[in-house]
Amino acid sequence: MNPVALAFAAFLTAAIGTLGGLGGAILLVPILVLSGMEAKFAAPLGLVSVAAGSLAAAPHQLTARVVNHRLGVATEIVASSAALVGALVSGLIGQSLLAVLLGCVALVAAFAGGRRKGIRNLPDPSLTAADVGETPGTLAGVYPLGDEFVPYRAKRLPVGLLGMGIAGLISGLSGVGGGWVKTPTASEVMHVPVKVAAATSTFTVGVTAAVGLLVYESQGRVVVSDAALVAAAGLVGGTVGVRLQHVLPPPLVRRGLSVILAVIGVLLIVRR
Amino acid sequence: MNDLNTLSKILMVALVITFACALGGAFIPGTVGQWSGTACIIILIAAPVLRVTWLVVDWTRARDVKFALLGCALLVVLATSGAIALLR
Fold first, then answer.
1. Which of A80, B22, B35, B79 can bridge A231 by disulfide, Cβ–Cβ 3.0-4.6 Å?
2. With contacts defined as CB-CB under 8 Å, which chain A residues touch B14?
3. pLDDT (tens digit, 9 = 90+) per residue, A166-175?
4. Where are the transmembrane segments (chain A) (predicted)?
């Protein structure tokens, strides 16, 4: 792939990945492979894109206090442990079967997000800007929505943790980030507002990508010049994505996320 | 404590430095470009670990013991994952 096309693909996928909390690798890696790049070199570039998008989003999301770090840390323990198990047993499952499973998961997540209408968590007029952020000791918090403030609390924790475990397992098995499963799980299973779910997922996929990158770097699979180009474009894309996430209404983000997931699901099943 | 604003500023500095290193790695030929690109990748790996470590310290100071321990557990899981993957 020529450098301009590589930079454009990295910019676009990082922007979409950060906007929806998907991570971007699930989009970038297939594009790179379709363009003729070997998968073993495309996967590290996907993780560079994810890490860049996560870093680009961090300052804005921290200032806006839209990330629930307690939820992210609690769920990431399960997801990372499952990712390790997935990586260790990845040779036991055929790639074709894995692609169908991934595609089905993406389509179910797309359907769950797309069928829901309206906003689940409603603003509370008694809350002020001082209440925005996480509630210490809990998986609850308040996030700003325009001029109003919305309280939320993560529900169905056991099922949610199971979903995060599946996300981690998929991540370990397939080598792509699990953000595209984590965001719908937090939003649709745990009833966390989609913007908080996406921002929290953007944080956690950065953590997962860091470990993956460390491994790829030690294996000599990171082509530094390509990785640097993807990182530069990913940082710009991530910055654009997080700005869009801040201004777009939650139902639009959720439906956009559903459309992207549906496309991913169909691509995975068709391309197997 | 909840000192997320300071962390936000630190990560903003990291973002700017990473971007500069990435541009150097992409466009400067030779050893300088190679080092610049490698520095970019190292920062991308280090930033999330720094963030989790910062949260653990922040929650410990705020006496949010349960989540401070969860943060420590996550760091252990990450270190174990990295070590196992590197040794395979």
1. B22
2. 55
3. 888 887 777 6
4. 6-34, 41-62, 82-112, 159-181, 196-216, 228-246, 252-270
